[in-house]
Amino acid sequence: MKFIYQNILQQIAQGKKLLAVLIDPDKMPLDNVEGTIKNVNESWVTHIFVGGSTVKAGITAALVAQIKAHTTLPVVLFPGDVTQITNKADGILFLSLLSGRNPEYLIDKQVASVAKLKNTTLEVIPTGYLLIENGKETAVQRVTGTAPMPRHNVQQIVHTAKAGEYMGKHLIYLEAGSGALHPISETIISKVKQELNIPLIVGGGIKNKNQLESAYKAGADLVVIGTAFETDATFFEALKLEAKI
Ligand code: 1GP
User: How many other β-carbons are positioned within 10 Å of the β-carbon of residue 128?
Assistant: First the structure.
């Protein structure tokens, strides 16, 4: 499937809002996949992202294969490391951590991934990734050794996102971090959205439907939710197809 990005653009052009569930291979036993994906299929989730900051090497492929066996939704890798790349998925967010100044996460890991990627049929989607301060330290911060951008310096966040667009990224991802205390603020989302001509992904710390709606209203095109689905099985209930916002 090489149409993930085109489909995102088309759906956004039609005024649709997109939702990705983030599945962390470290936290999802293979035995739980079928039940979880059944819930996903019955909700208005549009994408399944798979990845994490600290996933054990070698477990992602089996998980993705199991997910693919139970859904037709696009499965997109959201990798914290080269070891998480698997051809079993449909696409990959080819992330560059633009908020940080660690060359390893700006370019080195991307170079290291090429030998693997060029032997896959994954749709590679260039994505500018910005980690924003959220009230507590997150795994991305620890693993990458970079500081998040201060949330009050909105202009710097906007300029960084726009620089990503000028550099040719196809998506910008505003990340508060998994389990963030404060999701990305509406002010940040709306100011970034006003300046961008490419789709905007927002994730980190979104725990309920109100926060989801706020992110959409502020301008998020695609919202990513991981922890809330892991910790609250009833959250899928609120997102059943018939309850679409
Ligand atoms: C993390 O943005 C994602 O990379 C999702 O965060 O787990 O807090 O939903 P949560």
Answer: 27
